[in-house]
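Box 3.1 A note on notation
Throughout this textbook, protein chains are presented in two layers. The first layer is the amino acid sequence; the second is a token string describing backbone geometry. Keep the layers aligned when reading.
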Amino acid sequence: MTEAMSPDPEATPPEASRAVPEVAPSTSGTTSPAAPSGAPAVGGLLLTVGVALLWQAIAAGVDSGVTLGGPTLAPIVVTGLWVMVALWYLLDAVRKRATAAGAPATVAWRTPVFLLAALIVYAIVLKYTVVGYVLSTAVFVLVSARLLSTRPIRAVIVRDLVTAVGLSLGIYLVFTRLLGIVLPAGVLPL
């Protein structure tokens, strides 16, 4: 009985008698762009913060009166857009996670954490220093662009500088000259 189960060494060539182990494809170090595991949590956090800020903006607008040209309309519009984008992001992350069930994924927390830190530093510099809106916003836009970019800095530095300076200066001039909203001028003679 044992002879029937063991192969005859004379009948099979030596190469065929060696067992070749099967190797499963490696998934270590790869991420699934379709379904990051932390994306729904980030989307939920963004939505929660957006709803809280929208609630505060609406409450401030009701207290002081919302007018088309007044300063209370902009925070309501911006936070309303934030809520819509956060809701879209959350729904998209949940949908992608459901379609890619079982795919291993890792969460890249570095960029969101650094962006949050940059935003906090930007707010502190804007409120408590004499740097001013234009310079602090230009630096914040440069830092944000660098954190979000995957291209080498040499390839995008000119574009990022022009965008940062143009955006911060343009917003400053529109708000101060056209809308009459005071933004801190800082060290620049604007």
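The helical segments are 2-5, 14-17, 39-64, 73-99, 110-128, 133-148, 153-178. The chain has a mean pLDDT of 76.
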